[in-house]
Amino acid sequence: MTTEAGRKILAEHPGTTGSLGCAISEAVEDAVSREGYRYVLGSVLNQVLLHQSVIGMETMAALDKYGIEPDMIIGCAGGGSNLGGLISPFMGKKLRGEADYDIVAVEPASCPSLTRGKYAYDFCDTGKICPLAKMYTLGSGFIPSPNHAGGLRYHGMSPILSELYDQGMMRAISVEQTAVFEAAEMFARVEGILPAPESSHAIRAAIDEALRCKETGEEKTIVFGLTGTGYFDMVAYEKYNDGQMTDYIPTDEDLKPGFDSLPKI
Ligand SMILES: Cc1ncc(COP(=O)(O)O)c(C=O)c1O
User: What is the CA(81)–ligand 1 centre distance, in A?
Assistant: First the structure.
């Protein structure tokens, strides 16, 4: 209720718990209404991926130090910045034909921008105050169900990742949240680090692949991005342990209003 954009979104979606797209609209409005302030999007846009490439460069340096070449690189994908940063130097090698990697974006089944979205020009935010970007999108009018994928609840995807996905240079999968929390708890018990729900999407995919390799006897080096800790998400872990967590996969019908909100270009 403290911003014009927030009030408008609430009027259109009464009682909504919001999304990353809503947060962007509110933050931009707040920044531009103060003298001397500017807002820089923290995800999605190309310059953010450039900054995040330090993650990939450090990963590659660490792997090189031990003479390890990964087969598979996995990252959770909300706006796409951590995954884009993690894969950037590896994707460079792949594009130059120097190496091949299986690069996988993992998104929540409740907000499947790459796996079920359209490749189109769309607004980066729900309030439609940001510039358009060509990306895989569910439509800026799509607000995902209020689940615990947190920062992955974004209607679009980084234009760079979208282009790479469109060209078949990487693939994408979606996972359901109870399976994600199961993986998160497994990881916490083994590693002593409570992962963020967002990161746990990548952990789920890494565990599934490792289990598959165990069955087939295949040896594979799997790298995944651990983007944050889950200490701010204890309520979600509590819900999971109390058996109150549900999975939600939108139907084609649920996705239709979002696609209808795409700008006609
Ligand atoms: C811990 C964590 N990981 C991942 C993400 C996803 O963002 P991106 O896809 O831009 O890396 C977020 C977003 O808020 C986050 O908080």
Answer: 7
